[in-house]
Amino acid sequence: METLNYRANAPQRAKGSKRQVIVGVVASGNLEVLAERVLPDSECEVDIRTAAEGFGEVWQAVVADFVERRSPGGLKFSINDGGARPDTVALRLAQAVSAIEGERT
Amino acid sequence: MIIIASDKALPPNNTSASTDSWYESSARQRVENLLDANSFNEFIGPELRETSPHLPLFDLPEQFDDGMIVGYGRLDGIPVLVAAQEGRFMGGAFGEIHGAKLTGLLRAARDIAWLPVLILFDTGGVRLQEANAGELAIAEIMRALIEARFAGIPVVGLVGGRAGCYGGGGLIAGCCSALAVSEQGRISVSGPEVIETNRGLEEFDSKDRALVWRTMGGKHRRLIGGAEVFADDTVASFRDAARFLIKHAPSMSLEMLEAEQFRLTQRIEQFGTCADAADIWRSLGATKPQSIPALPHPDFVALANDLQEPHYVAR
């Protein structure tokens, strides 16, 4: 298992008032994302525990792209990963933001 | 309170949720769509991160809810306690935390003594990485379940997930007041691969899917009295089944146990020499047993009611 942590500034606060949501499942090629509204509005954090070691750079790229697209200010994302591909990770992160912002996912 | 997001697209007013496939739904979707809207309150939710203490020793990923969701909600207005297994996380298998959450729920049901319990099974049995803790969990759950039943609580099992209900899950299901199972649901103790490995291909060919479903699937379980209701693979059908079985669950008593023993003795006398499930169906009076696996839900329910009334008095 490898543990990764990324913190970033987010220009905008994530919409809505839900305190937390969880999406996905820990299975082969899949992951779960727990999103919690626990940070200051201008910050976000992604905390990852992954079964696939040695992909830190890919994670960093996916997270940077995600933060730029969604600006999830105030949210902490905790990920348990079962070896998901980068596109699946991006979709689950987007799904988590949509859910906590109150959109149907 | 935790807010639960479902895994796939739903219309704004959630009206299609009832027709969603039970088999395809995640454990959280099942709980959310089975219960009245926004009525579910989770105990020990994922934010508490009560994960398995064993999986890290094997360098395996954890899940924040350890594959078991427990809580309180309402089913058509009736307050209920609910437990749901996520069959996609480690095959829904029982580990220490996963099991302890269900044990705690059943003990709460026993102590509160008026809330019915629904268990949404989706499990391959005990998690091999947590063998001893998992086996102990099964034993604790069965004891807690029986104690809840002696306190007068109906404990209803719903089986229709991709992992089926195997191993210790099959034992727990057997302790329930009543069971609803769908075509896709399978109930047994030893799974197809386990039987083949231990007894040989001649005994059971695990790759013969028709044989697996014919022997362990929902239709057979309904016909031999192993499950009281045959549900369609929709959330709405399982909701109807759950509401019906909460109302009609037999109470736990010496008379009930003796009646169940009598039923099982009769069953082995009647079917003990049958080599295949189809032989049992023929013996029950089905004129075309080979057509049963392909029968649509309403046709099968009618046939099953015709062949054998459900045994609500004994389990």
From TrEMBL, chain A:
One of its GO terms (molecular function) is acyl carrier activity. InterPro entries: Mal_deCO2ase/Cit_lyase_ACP, Malonate_deCO2ase_dsu. The keyword Cytoplasm applies. The modification O-(phosphoribosyl dephospho-coenzyme A)serine is found at S28. It comes from the Bacteria. One of its GO terms (cellular component) is cytoplasm. The keyword Cell cycle does not apply. Covalently binds the prosthetic group of malonate decarboxylase. It is found in: Cytoplasm. Keywords: Cytoplasm, Phosphoprotein. Subunit of malonate decarboxylase, it is an acyl carrier protein to which acetyl and malonyl thioester residues are bound via a 2'-(5''-phosphoribosyl)-3'-dephospho-CoA prosthetic group and turn over during the catalytic mechanism. Belongs to the MdcC family. This is Malonate decarboxylase acyl carrier protein. It comes from Dyella dinghuensis.
Automatic annotation (TrEMBL), chain B:
It holds the Pfam family Carboxyl_trans. The keyword Mitochondrion does not apply. It comes from the Bacteria. SUPFAM superfamilies: ClpP/crotonase. GO terms for molecular function: acetyl-CoA carboxylase activity; carboxy-lyase activity; transferase activity. InterPro entries: AcCoA_carboxyl_beta, ClpP/crotonase-like_dom_sf, COA_CT_N, Malonate_beta. Keywords: Transferase. One of its GO terms (biological process) is malonyl-CoA biosynthetic process. Residues 1-254 form the CoA carboxyltransferase N-terminal domain. This is Biotin-independent malonate decarboxylase subunit beta.
